[in-house]
Amino acid sequence: MSAVHVAGVSKIFNQGTPKQVDALVDVNLTVEAGDFVSLIGPSGCGKSTLLRLIANLLEPTTGSVTVNGKSSAQARLDQDYGMAFQQAGLFDWRTVAKNIELPLELKGWDKEKRRARALEMLELVKLPEFAELYPWQLSGGMQQRIAIARALAAHPQLLLMDEPFGALDEMTREYMQGELLRICRETKTTVVFVTHSIPEAVYLSNRVVVMSPRPGRITKLIDVDLGRDRSEDTRNADAFFHGITAVREALRGTHADHANEVRGVEDR
Amino acid sequence: MTVALSPRRLRSVVPPLVFGLAFLALWESAVRGFDLKPYFLAAPTKIVGEFADNVGLIWDSSMVSGGNAFVGLVVGTVLGVAMSFVLSRYRFLGELVTPLAIALNAIPIFVLVAVLNNMYSITSEIPRRFMVTLVVYFIVLVNVAKGLTQVKGTHVELMRSYAASDFEILRKVRVPNAKPYLFTALKIAAPASVITAFVSEYFGGSQNGLGSRITSNIANSRNATAWAYVLGACLLGLGFYIISVALENVTRKEGAPIATKQGKIKK
Questions:
Q1: Which residue of A has its CA nearest to B180?
Q2: Which of A52, A91, A106 sits opposite B162 (nearest CB)?
Q3: N or C: which end of chain B has fewer CB atoms below 10 A?
Q4: Which of B154, B158, B161 sits opposite A76 (nearest CB)?
């Protein structure tokens, strides 16, 4: 059973009005359990829309989305996935531990069980001493680690991430990438990851999905052959550079067709 | 008993205190030096003297005006909060009510008290309380409705990803988000309720409150006594403001950030 199966999906906003936008057209994608799949492409290619379709925060216009063998709607009701966004989205009026407990509260867990799990998650993201602080007392990178801890609190098998490191500085970003890989390895979580950084996509993923805009569609799937155990040394490996070159060339393909429309792809 | 004041505290307290005392000294010496008549401008020492002589009467009038302000503040806040929940739930109602609220805020609505006085018996306090309620109601409504609706998009998406119901989103996101907005509203509404209670007394009715005492003393050329009532009015307004600030400090969790009027987070 694949973790995510997207079949013949289109998403059209404002259908039948002058403001109609074909966000996605005929998208097919399968993510196997244990995969780390990145969605990359210029702004407007529908990568965030695709992620929200998988999360059932949007309904597809046509086609179907299956998560863990169920409809995406059922998967959302069962909290089969955790989600993290570019903004950490922590609640200022809750302590760090209470933020992590939120999805468990909504699942109806009792207090002791919630607290125990929150502390376990804080250990996982290596911030155990911050349980009783408020989010605004933490740095941006720490906040994002808390957001990841919260997304994984209910031990979902699938993690959906929308540019989670987009607002971080480069050093913090590379550190967070390493941490994310370690956490996913330890928890055996499948990840669908939206980014517009080519090195980030290559470093993290075993498969990169290259997308192009207007209408949004998948133009190429690139397998990254860096193995499972990646470290900072991986960033100097030949296979890493080959991967970057392959993704860059695939994105150039989208470039040639839409010379004036490519925005927001970071080439760093 | 001595109160320990830190140097930083002293720096924030001393300059306004010195300025205030210097202003009073200037006032006093101007009255004496130019031999200003009491019906033109009373000296501060005279005002304080009148205040001390009439402290019982000033207290009684303060209770009347303060009571009206308090009843209006409580009722207006309760109604404003209740209505803001309704408006945030049914957005189309908000579109109907908001222009009316803005229009009512734009006109000097005190004049309505004259109309209300006609509707009730001349000794009734209801028109004044109603007036305060109306002023407080709109301040609370506009602010709390903003707090309930202007939540972060990420927060709502996150809650939906947890399959949270609308009620759970209200309880765990909207209400906590609106709390600092309520206290901002109360900080504006508390002094406004006192002002409204005074001004409402200028449009007839019983001559028992601070506002009517001020006018009647001026009409009788008892200028210093009128000023003594003004002093009472200042203290009453200040009292209301301090209570609203204290309320905020009690309910705010230790260390939590304060939302400023613009809704930004101050550390």
A1: A93
A2: A106
A3: N
A4: B161
| Separation of alpha carbons B80 and B73, rounded Å | 10
AA identity, residue B117: N
**Domains of chain B, first to last:** 54-266 (1.10.3720.10)
| Alpha carbon distance A77, B18 (integer Å) | 65
Instruction: Determine the residue of chain A that is closest to B253 in CA distance.
Output: A93
Cα–Cα dist A41/B141, whole Å? 44
Q: Per-domain residue ranges for chain A?
A: 91-155
Distance separating alpha carbons of residues A151 and A149, to the nearest angstrom: 5
| Spatial contact of A72 and A57, defined as CB atoms under 8 Å apart | no
User: pLDDT 10s per residue in chain B (267 long)?
Assistant: 455 667 777 788 888 889 999 999 998 888 888 888 777 888 888 888 888 888 888 888 888 888 889 999 999 999 999 999 988 888 788 778 778 777 776 766 667 777 777 777 777 788 888 888 988 998 899 899 889 988 888 899 999 988 888 899 999 999 999 998 998 898 888 888 988 888 888 877 777 888 888 888 888 878 888 888 888 888 998 898 888 888 878 776 544 554 443 344 443
Alpha-carbon span B196 to B218, nearest angstrom: 20
Amino acid making up residue B231: L
Q: Whose CA is closest to B136, among B65, B74, B209?
A: B74
**Token couple for B123:** 């000794």
Nearest to A38 by CA among A221, A173, A219: A221
Strand-pairing partners, residue B265, are B259
